[in-house]
Structures are given as C-alpha cells and as structure tokens.
Amino acid sequence: xxxxxxxxxxxxxxxxxxxxxxxxxxxxxxxxxxxxxxxxxxxxxxxxxxxxxxxxxxxxxxxxxxxxxxxxxxxxxxxxxxxxxxxxxxxxxxxxxxxxxxxxxxxxxxxxxxxxxxxxxxxxxxxxxxxxxxxxxxxxxxxxxxxxx
Length: 149
Known about the structure:
The protein has about 150 residues and is an alpha+beta fold. It has one domain. Helices cover about 40% and strands about 15% of the residues. The protein has five helices and five strands, in the order βαβαααβαββ. The protein has a five-stranded antiparallel sheet with strand order 2-3-1-4-5, sandwiched between helices. Strand 4 and strand 5 form a beta hairpin. Helix 2 (about 55-65) runs antiparallel to helix 4 (about 90-100). The radius of gyration is 15 Å and the shape is globular.
C-alpha cells in the first residue's frame, strides 16, 4: 500500500501488537475486499477509529516479536512459547502473522457489546472475511463466518 492509500496504517492503525481486547479480528484476502469491508463498517455505524488494518511482512515481523502482553503475562506467554505449549493466543497470533506475511489483510474492529460483535461479524463475513475471532478480556472466541463454513 502506498503512503497515500486510505487503507494505510496512518488512517487505520492495527493494534495487534497489543492484545486486541473487545475486538473482532479476521482476515481478508484482497485490498478490494478490505476497502469494501471498511466502507460497509463505517456506513454500518462503526467509526474509522474503531477499525484497524494490517498487512505485509514488516508488520508480521513486528507481531512475531511481541506477545501482545506486558508484565507477568508477557513472561508466561514467552515461557509457554519456549516450551512449545499451545495456547489460543499464540495460535491466533501465528495465524494473523502468517496472513499478513502472505499478503492478506488482518482487520480488527472494536466491538465492546454483543450487538456490535454480531454486526461486525455480519459485515466482515459478507465481504469474505475468514479466520474470524472475538478477543474478549479473558478468552478468544472463534466466530463462524460464512467463509469458514
């Protein structure tokens, strides 16, 4: 994406470098899908500041370097990773990192209520999103998008 591109990180910075609390996160395969999804989200009541987009190997590298946590939680996540112990956060992080590295677009939408979560899923699914999850405060919930069926 170019610096003038309205999907650029300056307009829709992705905050996956921190745990994306209360966000619906999914993968879109093309820039066109992503543009259309952002348009639908903003037309559907979401603010542009509630939408984050990430793509490319540079951001994937940054994501690989962090657990998205701080303090003891960061230490525990790194310890689990070093031991090869699977957990939902590490699996989700690897999935989204791989998608960005492969040219996909990871989109995160702030959705602090059940209604907003369902609306974000509906819009993202209708634009081809897959591997969609909701990152609650304590749990990651896999959401069933049309593409995952």
